[in-house]
Automatic annotation (TrEMBL):
SUPFAM superfamilies: ARM repeat, GUN4-like. Pfam families: GUN4, GUN4_N. PANTHER family: TETRAPYRROLE-BINDING PROTEIN, CHLOROPLASTIC. Residues 5-87 form the GUN4 N-terminal ARM-like repeat domain. It comes from Hassallia byssoidea VB512170. This is GUN4 domain-containing protein. Residues 95-234 form the GUN4-like domain. One of its GO terms (molecular function) is tetrapyrrole binding.
Length: 240
């Protein structure tokens, strides 16, 4: 059952929508963000208020949705707001190695998932060191030594900017739910169809219509051992 929506015509109506947005279920929040995005400056202002009220909590994909509306807006007030309160983006870009994840956040904020996928691999190679950067792929032993903070940052970026649909933790949860059966896993997330592997890049789906867990393409990092190391990484059991 969907909460009743109102047709705003006054500032009081906008305030009511904001209160519904703050208190509503995820489904209602998603609908209201879309509705507010169509209401011009007043709607954008309500989204700003919403993000400010949630600023001290860990960002979810609902925050990502609201942020993306503001990020894509041409309104000067929206740009000024983001620069003042979220200069790095909606996800804090923590790194133990001094790696800059801002370009990745920018790509994900506009849902350029194909470019973000390529950059994700590049950033993971940076984590592994100069040799991995040069070869452009990873050994499973390098993945084992990834800093927890960095892996969580990359994963959080994908989660927040994909409505919770993409990310390593999402893939791991699906894999565990399939009793760690790799063949079933490949098919479930759309990396394999029968005996045929999905061909990169044209056969992959680079938008939110993709199966859950479809991205990022960690199978492109080289075989089962790499993704197995990724899924067994302590980042997922030490989540903050």
């Amino acid at each position: 059952m969907t909460d009743p929506m109102i047709v705003p015509g006054t500032a009081n109506d906008i305030d009511l929508l904001l209160q519904q947005l703050i208190a509503g279920s995820i489904g209602v929040q998603q609908q209201l963000i879309v509705q507010l995005s169509d209401l011009g400056d007043e709607g954008l202002h309500a989204l700003m208020e919403f993000l400010l009220k949630r600023r001290e909590t860990k960002a979810t994909w609902i925050d990502g949705n609201a942020y993306q509306v503001l990020y894509k807006s041409n309104a000067p007030k929206a740009k000024e707001f983001l620069l003042s309160y979220f200069p790095e983006g909606i996800v804090p870009l923590k790194s133990e190695c001094g790696i800059d994840y801002n370009p990745l956040q920018q790509l994900l904020a506009v849902q350029d998932f194909q470019a973000a996928d390529r950059l994700t691999l590049q950033k993971m190679c940076e984590l592994a060191g100069p040799t991995a950067v040069q070869r452009k792929w990873l050994y499973f032993t390098e993945v084992e030594n990834f800093p927890i903070t960095d892996l969580q940052t990359i994963n959080h970026l994908w989660l927040v900017h994909s409505q919770g649909k993409f990310g390593f933790s999402v893939q791991r949860e699906i894999w565990l739910g399939l009793s760690k059966n790799w063949e079933n896993f490949w098919s479930k997330i759309g990396w394999k169809n029968g005996n045929n592997w999905t061909r990169y890049p044209n056969e992959f789906t680079w938008d939110l219509s993709a199966p859950k867990g479809h991205l990022p393409l960690s199978n492109q990092l080289r075989g089962v051992r790499v993704i197995a190391s990724l899924f067994s990484h302590p980042a997922w059991t030490n989540a903050k």
